Structures are given as structure tokens and as C-alpha cells.
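Note to self: keep these together.
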Amino acid sequence: MRYALAPPVNALTEDLARIVGREAVSTEEPERRAYAHDLWPKHLIAKRAGRALSSGPRAVVWPSSDAHVGALLRYAKRAGVKIAPFGAGSGVCGMTEADADTIVLDTKRMRSVRALDVPRGRALIDAGMLGQHLEDELLARGATLGHYPSSISCSTLGGWIVTRGAGQCSGRYGKIEDMVLGLEGVMPDGEPFAAGVPREGEPDARALFVGSEGLFGVVTRAHMRVWPAPTERRYLAYTFATLRQAWDAVRSLYQSGIRPAVCRVYDPFDTYVFRTGQRRSASKSAHKIERDPAAKHPVEEWLLRRTMPASKAINALNFAFGERVFGRSLLILLFERAPNEPVDESVSRARRTCLSCGGRDEGEAPARRWLERRHSVSYRQPGTYAKGLWVDTMEVAAPWACFQALYEGVRGALAEGGFVMAHMSHAYPDGCSIYFTFVGASPDDERALENYTRTWSRALEAAHNAGGTIAHHHGVGRSKRQAMRLEHGAGVDVIASLSRAADRDGVLAGGPLLPARGEGPAAPSITVSSRDVSIDAMSRLVTARPSCALADVHRALEAQGLALRGAPIEGSVGEWLARVPSAQVLRDPVDHRVAGYVARTASGARAHLLPAPRRAAGPELFTLFATRPERFGAIETVTLVAHAKDRQPEYTAPFEEPELATTDNVRAWIDRAAG
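Structure:
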């Protein structure tokens, strides 16, 4: 049936029931409110302030097949409503905000491991599968994905993919983009698609869907790299007199080829909090939270709202004297071993590295305690909000050469709005991420919203100005989209072009990834170096022009004891990258080929990505510029990851690419975007 306007609820329910079955449709208020938005802290502050939030979508549907998804998308076009794909709603960046013109498409009835081949290191998994269910099933069958985010019990595989998520064991297994071998799903016109290994010289569509945040289609299945299930864990912990010593130890570990699954560094105050919690009775703390997580405390709230704004002074003291007052910085390492895989040498080398960098051995207890309680912190937020405060986290990343500036710049920006703690939780040979936790309060919630918004704006600009990325693994959403032009420059216009070309009828409700006109800072002016080759030896990065001969790059790197792994000797940088723009998954799970670039788009403006070890700030566009310069724009400089000439990673991922061809409708979509 075709409607001039969105159909009335009764008619809509009947229409949807004919597609997915009556038991898979709900227009009831409890369901609609549950799907209205995700867990963005700004929503929680606004709700506490009494502001009206969205009452939720017009309906919620639970499809159980690609045919259902395709029929729903075609129906939405006819009925004049929008479709909002939904995983589990645990995002913290405001990606979900469904209104009365929206149908939420919950994927969680599509939740099977369809195929598993442990010797070949790959599996085919439905995107709606909850993370903990997925990992439990894989472990029972002798495998692991190795993706353990804090939200593993309340997030889905599809959600991880479209936000470029990371798990706590990324040091061994990589981020989600290091695991995606192929994708299947449904385009906005209702037609199925597949994105597999690209043919030589063509764009890699997988890199566009990963991180797309629902703009280009509905991902329903993923071909994922898997590992043999671990059979042993080893635990290490060291403290360092300075934070700089601790992260120098981490850099040495990863650049020497050591691959601990977990690597976490806590700054002095975060170390103090960690150790204080270690001394408390876990059972008493758990009982207190369980008894009344959101109890009202009027006197305590009044005091906190008026004393927390003084956190600026508290932060200043912490920044100036933290190492003197709170003591040493803690490094936790956890190694996992698969069957027949040696681990003793890795552990021994890690011990020697930490000691040589000034570390003091703290035994196994801190690392064991972290593993036992690694999910507990996320569930403490209700009590914090009940006391009149707000709490949020920000995860950024930068190459090692920019790391100090990133830590100090973002910490200083966040300190204007609340009390700040930090730890480093995802490390790579070329850089690391920093995970900030900040707590703020204001005399009332209206001023809290203003404070919250200003704090985020300052911190995002500080991350960019320090040479870092605005997001490492939480995604963008409404929380960070204001900074997308800082991150991508004119690349934002390319993403918008891809979105329009994919969704010509405006069926998908996606779009928080893209800033509105005039929202946020303008694109920065990027200066392109006149040098053909420049090297950041600390981060092991080399920046070159596409016209530069690969032989010259190799010679420059060899003088630094470095090498460009997998690159031929003959030809130019641009010719090589046009043939193999960027492998989606590499054998070394924390390796990647392209860390950043500057490109001149077809419109004459500059798109860019400052070098970063990993990011979660939208789709990866480099593949378009490398293979279609005449259509999307030409690369001016590219930053590539180099490696120690005489050192390989101690183990690499076992996997084979699936025989999955990219479908013609995906190629046609990319061609339309270029036009």
C-alpha cells in the first residue's frame, strides 16, 4: 500500500506484520521508549533536567532474515517513514535518536554463527548476535574472536563493526577492522549486497562499511577472522616512577614484536584509585551498588554540585604534583596462549623490557584483579548521576611522537569541566590510545548541559591540535560530529556524497556522523611538506609523495634501521598503493599499512587524516583516493607504517580470506558517489 503521509499506527502495524509476522512488531509505549535513544550521557543529563526527549519510534520490528530487511526498506520508501538499524543500544555517542517518523529495525533475531572453520581462522556470523553469546559459542567450539569491549554483554557484532569498536584484548587480536574479512547485508533500496576482497586496483568497499554508522546500508552478516581459543593466561604488573617511563616501556614492547593481549597504563591518580579499590572489600562495594544504585541523597548532591566546580583547582594540583602525591604509574600486561604456541619467551622479554625502562615488578595480583573486575566500572554510573554529577569518557589516539602533547592537551581541556583521570588501554607499534574519564557537576542541570557541551568542544579541538584523532573506538554519533571537519577536512563531503549515492530515497535514518551546515569548527588549513620523504623514527612512520620512488623510501628507512614491509623495490609509492590500497586484515593483528594522508579532492579542497595508530571516526576513504584519483581526488602525501628491519612479530593471525566477491550494486554505488 502507498501512503501520501506516514501511515496511521494501526495500518502501519498491519503492514509490518505482513512482512515480519505480528509477534515481531511492537508499537507499545514501553518498547518505543526503550528504543528512543542510546546511553549518551548528554541525554541522561537532559532527562534529569526535565527536558522532553524523543518519545521513540513509531514502531519496533525484529526481522529474522535478509528478505525481511529488504522488504522493510522497500516498504519504508513507499510509506514515507525511515528505518533506523539498531544493535543493542549501548552506544555512548548519541548515534540512536529515533522519533515518530522512524521504524527501528532491531537485528537481534539474526543471531547465529553460520559457519566456523578454526584451522582456516574464519567464521560467518550474524550481525545481531550479542557479544557475550558470540564469544561463549566460539569458545565452546574451540575458537575466539578476541573482541572483549566493556559492553560485551549488551552490544552486538554489527554495532562493533559500524562504529569501528575495540575490545580490551586488542593488543593481541586487533580492533574490529582488523577482523572483518567480508560483509553482507542490504542496501537502502532493499537489494542484498556483499563486500569482499577487492580486485587489484579497485576500492575496498569493506573499509567504507566499517565505521559507517548506518549511513550506507544494513549489515546483516560478517565474515570474521577468528583464532584458536586460548588455553593459558600469564599476568604481569609493573609500576614506574613517571608516566613517561611507563608508556616508553609499552612502545618498546610493541615495536620489538611482543604482543600482550592486554596492555593498560594508569596515570598516578588512576593508579591510586585502582589500588584503593583493590584494598576494599569487593563484596561490600557490590552489595552497596546492588542495594540502591540510583538512590537520592539530597544533602550529598547539594554539596557535590557546589564543590565539584572547584575541580579546576584540584586538577591543577594533580597535574603539578600527581606523581609526588599519588605515587607511581601502573602497567598491567596479560598474555594469552593458544594450543602449541610458545609464550615463555614473550613473557621473559616483556619482563626484561619493563625492568630496563625503570619498572618495578608488582607480581601478578594487579593484573588478575583487573581481569576479575574489568566490567564493573561501567555499571557504577547510575549512582553517579543520582548524586547530581555527570560522568563521561573520551578515547583518543596519536602516534608516539605526539603522545605527550595529546595527553597534556586533552587533559587540560577536560579539566575545565570536571575532574579528570586517564589510562592507556590500546597500544600499537606506531602509537597508543588514551582513555579519559571525567566527572563534572554544576549548581543545576541546565548549567550542567552547557558545561558538558563546552567541555567536549574544547577537548575535541585539543585532540586535533595535538596531532591526534578525535575517536579511537567509541565512534562519532552526535557527540563528536562537530569535529568531523577537523578529522577529515573535505573528506566529510566525500562521506556525504557516498551517503546520498547509497540512499537515494532517504530511507535510512542514519546521519549523526555528518555535521550540519555550520556545525563545529571549519576544516583546518593543512600544509603539505615539500620533502619527498620524511620519517618519524619514534613512531616508525614515513610520509612520502605518491610520485616518490619506492627505492628512495627504502633507502631512507634503511638508514634508520627500518623497513617498509611488503612493498616492492620498483615503481613509485602511488603505483604500489593503487594496486594494493590497504589490506583490510593483516597477519600482524596490530599492524596497518596507511596511518594518514592528505588528498586534493575533485572540488579542489583538501581531505586529510592526521596519522593515528587507529581511529573510529567514520569510514576509511583512503581506498577511494588511491584507486580512483580522477573521480574522488588525488593523494598528495601518504603516511605509511614502517617496521624494525630485523624484528618480526612473535606470532601472527591464522586466517584465510573467504571467497566473497563484491557485488555489482556496491561498485555502482561507489561510481554514483564519484559522479
